[in-house]
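Single-chain item
Fold in token form
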Amino acid sequence: MPPENKQRAPSFQGEGDDLFSAKQKNASASPLADRMRPRTLEDIVGQDHIVGHGRLLRRAIQADRLSSIIFYGPPGTGKTSLAAVIANTTRAAFENMNAVLAGVKDIREVIDRSDERSRLYSKRTILFVDEVHRWNKAQQDALLPWVENGTVILIGATTENPFFEVNRALVSRSRIFQLAALGKDELLETARRALADKRGYGSWKVVFQEGALEHLVEVAGGDARSLLNAMELAVETSDWTAEGEPQPGAGWPPPAGASINVSMQAAEESIQRRALLYDRDGDYHFDTISAFIKSVRGSDPDAALYWLAKMVRAGEDPKFIFRRMIILASEDVGLADPAAIGVVVACAQAFERIGFPEGNFPLAQACLYLATAPKSNTTMAFFDALKEVNAEDAEVPNHLRDPSRDAEGFGHGEGYAYPHSYREHWVAQQYLPSALRGRTFYIPSVVGYEGKIRGDVLQKRELQAAIILGEKFDGAQDILSWSASSKSRQGWFKRLESGRSKLLLADREAIFNAAAPRRHDRSLIPLANDGLLLWESMRRSPEGLSAAIVGSQSAKDALLQYASVFDTMEKPEIAVSEELFPPGGFFSSDQFEHILIRAPRFKAEADRLAAGAASLLAPGGNLVLITYPPLAGERISRIILEECGGSKELSFRLKEAEDIFFAEAFSQTAAGAAAGELCDTDSLQVALREKGFNVEAQLLDRQEERLISEKELAAWFDTANSRWGAFMEKSLPASDFLQIREALETRLKKGPVLWRWKSLFLHARRH
């Protein structure tokens, strides 16, 4: 007789500890599920992945060489059945416990018996513990030493994940075998065996109405015990016929050979669920889940509950339903309600713990939460990003690279601004690869939580674009560094605001407060590479027109990427031109209520600017301009005197040299005009008044804390490449030039300096 078919040898067991002998003595009184429990490996249906021919567990059972194991799987998948096979096969003594009923005292008694067998008879003991996860830590710890020294071989059974619910030490000393829910074919085979076997209903002719047995299989949900219990109720409550005569109301059991007909109604009542038109492998399955998902997505809680109830009543796997709801929580709700996915996952975990029927409550809660939640599908932006990755594998920008390996050799990480060093924990800098600069993937919706963060997301994006895409500040007096070369200097950042961002917002606010555009106004924004004024114009005048002029096609492409947040009809009109006011034909209108310009380095001839503004502005229209005239910029001489504590004489000599430098570099001479630099407001104001404008102009005081890096300071005094450095070296005594640099180096080591300058604000209104 092969080992797998050999009956269990007699063993020393405690009274009532034999898992199966008592049931075998009164088999006819036992439930069908117990009567049909497998006795050999060949009787087991399903679980071929662990007990199929050649599998490890099958070989171990056949060779009677088991080590401690834990069976993990849903109810009715065969955990206890495998224990029964082992009990009928092993030469070892077999003890069993139910963790719900047994305590530490019971464990000690088993250990005492096991120890005695081992010492006196050299006999092993296998201890089967059903629902082992129900033991508390103290109970599991009481068993651990005896598993470790081999006094008992543990076979645990649990429906909970043992890695979470069972003592780690026990798990580490056991092999985990995971059992899967039985498939439809395996459940049908289980039912057929029960109908054919004498232990079941093999003594009678049991016939199920078409679809009735399949209904029981469908609703059992992979649980063989649930199926057999339902079969037992259906068969033993149905009328039977003996010798051709119906016997309505006759008791059970009928005589051998009697015919028993099980109707669909009996099948439905035995499992208390109505058979529905629902095939989990057919079209109706997919149609129903589709109707459920679309009802939730469409925020119809009544329809969502109906389709959910239909799936549950038809025996749909709750794990499948929860899986679809978890996906929906991210795909269709997303950041409109970030809590949605947490609620659904918590409901899924609650269901795992309690099962049916109480599990209907977390199922319904998750369904209703999603159906009533605000909706957003902005997580789909991931797939737009994925397309870019597939199209172009762009390199990581240098300042985002890991500095721990190649900082010295290649400058990796240089220029990175640490966001937490700023009071608002944010600083504008480039994070996308240069090839994708200006590309947008995520467009916040206007509903729920996402609607609340939309303004902040868009403002940060606009400020980032204005700094990254806009014209860069040039000239020594406007160089600004927001990164430190030493970790010891990071503390300085915490006293700084994101200065450039605040400056941009202040300029934008001043321009729009002066222009005061209405919802239906038309605004033209020249020099709009940075997009800063364009986005605000579109918000202020959603029913009007926002037109922009940029200097290159790449700038236009970048702005159109940012404009993807707007509907097609709301998108701006953008023209590419190197001229401040290009010839007509670019836009759908040649008349505007506002011309809005922000240009740190403004280049234009006064007469051409005035003429262009006069031709484009409607009567009563506004020209609003902010720029930073170089002659009104910060002076190193003031920093030496007020920030560095230098001598008045040294500061005075430097100021004289600086006045000459700026007068020559940005004068109203022919050379200055050729350079296109607007250095004062007089000529522009005159030209505008001649064209019929009322003009107001003022210089606004500006200041901010700026941290100047050592590298930046060295660039100022580079006499070969810096105009300022070359001029000062020639204009000042060598000792003064050296003393100025040393004073700045000493001061900058102490932290940021207060940087002051003036911006030109001009507001002209056409008559």
In short: The two ends are 113 Å apart (CA to CA). The first helix runs from residue 21 to 25.
